[in-house]
Amino acid sequence: MNADLQRLAAEALSRGGIDGLPDGHFIDGAFVAARAGGSFESVDPGTGKAFARFAAGDADDVADAVSSAERALAGPWGRMKPAERGRILTAAAALIRANAHRLAVAECLDVGKPIGEALGDVMGAARAFEYYAGAADKLEGETIPLGRDTFAFTVNEPVGVTAHIVPWNYPISTTARSLAPALAAGCTAVVKPAETTPATALMLAALLVEAGLPAGVVNVVTGFGGEAGAPLVAHAAVRHITFTGSVATGQRVMKAAADNVTRLTLELGGKSPLVVLADADLDAALEGVLGAIYENAGQICSAGSRLVIERSVHAAFVEKLVARAAALTIGHGLRNPQVGPVNSAAQLAKVEGFVEAAKARGLAVAVGGKRTTDPETGLGWFYEPTVLDDLAADDPIVQEEIFGPVLAVQVVDGFEAAVAAANGTQYGLVAGIYTRDLSKALTFARDVDVGQVYVNEYFAGGIEVPFGGNRLSGFGREKGLQAVTSYCKLKSVAVRL
User: Does the pTM of the predicted model rise above 0.85?
Assistant: First the structure.
């Protein structure tokens, strides 16, 4: 770990936080207190103790933020040349990198994830702004051949004010992956981060203004879903909503959006399969499985939370997997362990509830299966890396999203059974496969009903590759050039000559 980052992390760990975090909403280019004067604590999952306070927003704060975004859309931002928008996004990427260590420490304190993972998220956010900076002046229309007497063409226009509802597991990277393409398209935005992880969205907004973004183009309202999130998605001036979160909340967002016929991008999680065939490089597959489920303590929408493995290699593979899972280091994220805490007491209780119910059904836990604490302090919200082996296809551990470090193992006989198992839930976000047989890999990619497929590497790709789900995992695509079209409305023009 870089010496400067190590120093900042050690200071934050010893002091229980960092100085200078913003405590107000970011509206019209400045930090402001909540209209009603309320605030709430943000808690470090590694200790279970509060480290900062943030403004508790409500409908009035949301109205202020949306009005600011509307004014900005009609102001200099709306008249700015696309190339200049791109230059601002490029400057933002540079500022994120310049402030990467402080952002990573804040992300670690808020989310709980290991500082190395947090730094990777920050650098990914910088890359998102860099990538979409290059797209800002390339949103070209087309001419349509209607004959020599008619000139027809299309124009991509910004959709308007956009709302971004950000989850708690990847705050800065999820904010960046939707905010950057919206800005590249010329939209303005109101961001509502999760109440347990508001810090880096506020810090990012301030950096964007420092990069040259006009006041009001990006606004951030912190607070709780019912008080701040619901008024935002129901606001008539919001023309596009990007939401990442649970299926139940996503359904409520859809219903609210329907009243105003507001466009949506929904990423609603998953129960993603990682298939290991008998012909695979099993050592590489083992590394892939471990990263797929235990990174960020399994709190990833696209986590490989189901291992689907052929019977002939199952026993030996799971034996090695169990030994590796048991040896993973656990601790406060600022010490950069292999596995950090679960984000909240409520989430820890949810994870524990799934496993305890499995035990009550008579299922055997191959490794883990208990809540624990930071071994150095006895504090925090931790759950042991867990494997439940040889589960039935209809078991809740297989079918339901747990969002924690819990791996379900399904044993299959042959490739066709593996494909069937991969498609055997209501989710369809991502799927992975390890095999040396290219034909099987491509057949799997064809037949599995998901938005993204990984072959011989999990979490492959980056901001350049479109990402999103099918079925209960949602619809629409983030990342890649496809994401920019979500924030454009296409206008067709036909002129009689």
Answer: yes
